[in-house]
């Protein structure tokens, strides 16, 4: 139960206790007043519970795209559509998780392939040289900046490329 409902219930209990007849009065009218106060307290607590339940159903309805536009929807409709929406979200999460796993596997495969190409570029011996790694790093950075890198005998030159161009120099 939300804190506001608990506070309301505590307030109603205190009010009910102050209205009840003092213990030991023994008069029948006091007993009737006490039972009426208890009944009123119970009714107000039940009313607060129903209001809270209605607010929660409205909040749930607003979070389900298929029924968010409906002003009036039955509780059964809200629950059924919400459950279907949750199942759809779970399926989508599973699909995206497997897609992510495939992308990570592909990334690992491409990294291995790149490493093999770097080894081949160095003539098949050991790890790639520092200058080869620097050239590959410079080319990758240039692609991110939409410029091409051309290595000439006098050094590297950056050449602007069209955005989205796939020409690598």
Q: How would you describe this protein?
A:
This protein is mainly alpha-helical and 169 residues long. It folds into three domains: 1-63; 82-128; 129-169, no CATH class. 68% of the residues lie in helices and 7% in strands. The protein contains four helices and two strands; from the N terminus they run ααααββ. Helix 1 (3-19) runs antiparallel to helix 2. The model has no long low-confidence stretch (mean pLDDT 77).
Number of domains: 3
Main sheet?
2 strands, antiparallel
Q: Whole-number radius of gyration?
A: 36 Å
Structural class: mainly alpha
In short:
The protein is mainly alpha-helical and 169 residues long. It has 4 helices and 2 strands.
Topology:
Layout: H1 3-19, H2 28-63, H3 75-121, H4 130-144, E1 147-152, E2 155-160
Antiparallel strand pairs: 1-2
For the structure shown, list the relevant keywords.
single chain, 169 residues, mainly alpha, 3 domains, two-stranded antiparallel ribbon, 2 strands, rod-shaped
């Amino acid at each position: 139960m939300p804190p506001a409902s608990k506070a309301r219930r505590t307030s109603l209990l205190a009010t009910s206790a102050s209205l009840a007849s003092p213990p030991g009065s023994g008069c029948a009218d006091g007993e009737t007043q006490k039972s009426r106060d208890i009944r009123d307290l119970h009714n107000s607590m039940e009313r607060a519970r129903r209001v809270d339940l209605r607010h929660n159903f409205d909040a749930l309805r607003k979070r389900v795209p298929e029924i968010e536009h409906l002003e009036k929807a039955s509780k059964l409709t809200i629950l059924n559509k919400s459950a279907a929406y949750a199942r759809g979200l779970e399926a989508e999460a599973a699909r995206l998780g497997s897609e992510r796993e495939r992308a990570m596997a592909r990334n690992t495969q491409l990294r291995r392939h790149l490493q093999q190409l770097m080894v081949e570029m160095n003539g098949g011996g050991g790890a790639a040289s520092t200058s080869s790694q620097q050239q590959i790093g410079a080319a990758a950075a240039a692609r991110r900046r939409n410029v091409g890198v051309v290595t000439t005998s006098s050094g590297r030159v950056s050449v602007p490329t069209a955005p989205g161009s796939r020409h690598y120099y």
